[in-house]
Request: fold
Amino acid sequence: MKNARKGSVLAMSAVVLIVLLVLGAALIARTRGVLESSARERDRLLALNAAEAGANLAVYLLASDPVHWTNLVSYYPALQNTDLGNSHFQVRDVTWLTGRTALVRSDGYSEGGRAAAKRTVAVKVRLIPAGWRYALFSGGNITAGGNSSVHGSMRANGANGITIDTAGSFNFYALNDLDAAETPGYIRDGANGIPPQYEVQRGPAIPDLPQIKYTDFQQTSLFPRARIYNVLPVDPTPGNDPFTDDDVATDPSAGILPKVQADGSVTWYYTYRAGKGPVNDQWTVDQFNAAFAANPSYLPGLPPKDYAMINWRTGVDQNGDGVIDDYRLHLSGNGTITSTIAVYGDSGNPLNPNDNGSVQIDGGATFEPVTGVALVANGVDFSKLNGNTQVGTQANPALIYASGYANWGSSGSLTTVGCVAVGGSQLATVTIGGNSAHWFNPSFIDKMPENMQLVFTRPTYYSEWLSWQVL
Reply:
């Protein structure tokens, strides 16, 4: 009996031992599986991170080095193989889908793990040039109709985007593969004038209109070759107004009173009668060139200069209260203007979106400014053209720079060569009508002083990621 109990205990012990051995083996196997699975997952994650690192580097190089877009991988050894310690990546290729949209494929590999892994990511990215390249730019919206065209990039930086009138005949022409019609809003092309491959809508915002300091146009140190004119009203009332000269006689018959300043600039003081407007509101091109010449005959003995720069701050008293409330310059007739014209309104800053200074151009003038800047104002009005006006030529391209609006459209025609840039706010508007053609030519930048050039020259690109996937 006693021996039987011993045998039973031994048998039970053997069974328990066997069960424990089986459970232990199973636990060891499961633990090994978990460890191997974790190692594989770790290796896959390392490989994925490496592939993403390769794609990120490729996109960075695309944005910073457009010169080597066509041979990016072969040009940069880092894209061909970069060791990250426990992983490495190899950018397989960069395939261009459009002129500015690329597909980057990057392979990532883990190293030193239980099971080396490979992962591939594909990134589709759009490159948006940061350097200035716009034939036509609006901080707000662009509305185009008539028989008009844009040659080069155009951009409406406001939510209302670009609207092409269905009744008009508008055509967009890319000068290279990088050009596009861009807006963070929508493009409504009623005339089907913009080829679909050049439409970039709902894209990222970019910095607003580059800011030029309006006071620069008054600085003889920045424009040593220019005869700088400052055209101001004479205040008919006493007081200390920095924008007028109360020491000059205010007899309405005195007319225009030029005064040479210590820095060599010339200040013109207009006299005007309340309710009668200025002495002279409208100028023909010939009259304007004679009055604001680089070397005016009516002021003999001045050091010679090569060209003129006119800062205009006078206009019309519309309601008869003795205060100018419409600051404007009105030019008509034919001829060539080589000077730069900046028109200031009541704020004294033509680049203030709330300023009310404007330029109205009639007739058929040609602007070939020596400085590369033709017109600076809150508003530029070409709506009453009755001749063929050209702002900038291929030999002498020019910038039209306005803070508020620009509009044109009439029986005449307008050609701009260089850049039309309008608006530092989304309230800015550009309205195209009549017969007009607008060409981008970046050479106007080279003619500007260096401090002005810098706001237009940014050689890098913005990148917009369109899609990302693991292959």
User: Anything to note?
Assistant: Residues 120 and 471 are 5 Å apart (CA to CA).
